[in-house]
Amino acid sequence: MDGTAYPGVYREGRELYTINARPGVRVSGEALTRDGDTEFRHWDPFRSKLAAYLLKGPRPPTFEGVRSVLYLGASHGTTASHLSDLLPEARIFAIEKSPRSFAPLLRLARQRSNLLPILADAQLPERYAADVGLVDLLYQDVAQRGQARIFTENASACLRRGGRGLLMLKVRSVSQSLSAREVVADAREELLARRLTVGAPVDLAPFSREHLALPVVG
């Protein structure tokens, strides 16, 4: 198993892995493999947009020094569990509004002390901002309209100055009629209007079609 430019992320051939914080335990049926005394979990880019971004991004996101993460749209916790692996000292606040998805996320958090699930709507950061505080990394993966607005409002409430963010933009959840280029342009304009620094969009195809990642600095 080889290291990568991303601390805590490993590679074997074209596949990504994280060190399993709970040896012998799978989160979503992923493959487990051992290298010496260390067990690794396969990180599937077809199931995790963050893994897809790490494979396709032009430069690595900054995980060094991250001690707190706000994850919007954590769902069942697949990607959150890999963040839990690669950032064992960080507090990962996982926001999910669906009670059905929150139940397995809560079960997962009982096995991972650095994963802190919150049943809440990401459109209403004022309801959890006091509990979360200021974070080093804001990660968003929600499927609804107004994704850029949700990101900017959470950044204003919870992202520390100079903190980093990743907006996983789901094009067809924003508009069924606009092109991907138009949706990205509108999102960039909204982020820039809030004085956020926005990097070049990264197309996540073929792992996630009609999805693009926008790296952001607060």
- What is the CATH topology classification name? Rossmann fold
Radius of gyration: 16 Å
Count of β-strands: 13
Q: How far from one another are the termini?
A: 34 Å
For the record, the CATH class is Alpha Beta
Task: Describe this entry's structure for a reader.
The structure is a single chain. This protein is α/β, with parallel strands linked by helices. It has one domain: Vaccinia Virus protein VP39 (Rossmann fold, 3-Layer(aba) Sandwich), CATH 3.40.50. The chain is 28% helix and 30% strand. The protein has 7 helices and 13 strands. A hairpin with a 5-residue loop joins strand 1 (2-3) and strand 2. Helix 5 packs parallel to helix 7 (180-193). The model has no long low-confidence stretch (mean pLDDT 92).
Topology:
Elements: E1 2-3, E2 9-12, E3 15-19, E4 32-35, E5 38-43, H1 49-56, E6 68-72, H2 78-86, E7 91-96, H3 99-109, E8 115-119, H4 129-132, E9 135-140, H5 147-158, E10 159-170, H6 171-174, H7 180-193, E11 197-198, E12 202-203, E13 211-217
Parallel strand pairs: 6-7, 6-9, 7-8, 9-10
Antiparallel strand pairs: 1-2, 2-3, 3-5, 4-5, 10-13, 11-13, 12-13
Helix pairs in contact: 5-7
Question: Which short descriptors sum up this protein?
Answer:
218 residues, alpha/beta, Rossmann fold, eight-stranded mixed β-sheet, five-stranded antiparallel β-sheet, 7 helices, 30% strand, globular
Task: Provide a compact summary of the structure.
This protein is an alpha/beta fold and 218 residues long. The protein has seven helices and 13 strands.
